[in-house]
Design goal:
Elements: E1 2-7, H1 14-23, E2 28-33, E3 54-57, H2 66-78, H3 93-114, H4 119-137, H5 143-153
Parallel strand pairs: 1-2, 2-3
Helix pairs in contact: 3-4
């Protein structure tokens, strides 16, 4: 998912339109930043096609609207209902355990974000969550997993 940030206090630039062309088919949220500089005027007018996406007014400088942006990111990425591992169909036990491990790492990230843990430490848990999911998708398979697969299924030479 992409957070497409534009400056809310000025007109869109040629670069903004070029970026939109590159990301318009992907899931994204428009974040109108620097809304603190608008001073009661209307923020930048977005083209109608951009308004089909979620749009959030923020001020990164003053932390305005950031909670709303976080909520939109979470809803966009995970939907309104979290994954229910009890009713979800998971092909095998190994994948179920990897999903549970990724979920546990994600829960740690949420707790650490709420306690203002340094981002460097949060990044460790984020990498763990990504690694667990990557093992399911096959994007980062550990050697011991490959050995187990070869042992169990006797893949020919």
């Amino acid at each position: 998912m992409i957070v497409f940030m534009v400056e809310g206090h000025r007109s869109l630039t040629k670069e903004d339109y070029e970026i939109y062309k590159k990301v318009h088919s992907k899931p994204f949220i428009v974040a109108m930043n620097k809304i603190d500089l608008v001073n009661g005027k209307s923020p930048v007018m977005l083209p109608e096609s951009w308004m089909k996406k979620d749009c959030v007014e923020i001020s990164a400088l003053y932390d305005w609207g950031l909670e709303n942006l976080k909520e939109k990111i979470i809803l966009s990425g995970f939907g309104r209902d979290p994954i229910d591992l009890e009713t979800a169909i998971v092909p095998n036990l190994r994948q179920k355990l990897l999903i549970e491990n990724s979920l546990r790492a994600s829960e740690i990230i949420i707790r650490e974000l709420e306690t203002d843990t340094p981002m460097e430490l949060i990044a460790i848990h984020l990498q763990e969550a990504i690694d667990f999911l990557g093992q399911i998708l096959g994007t980062n398979v550990k050697v011991d997993v490959l050995n187990e697969i070869f042992r169990r299924f006797c893949v020919g030479k």
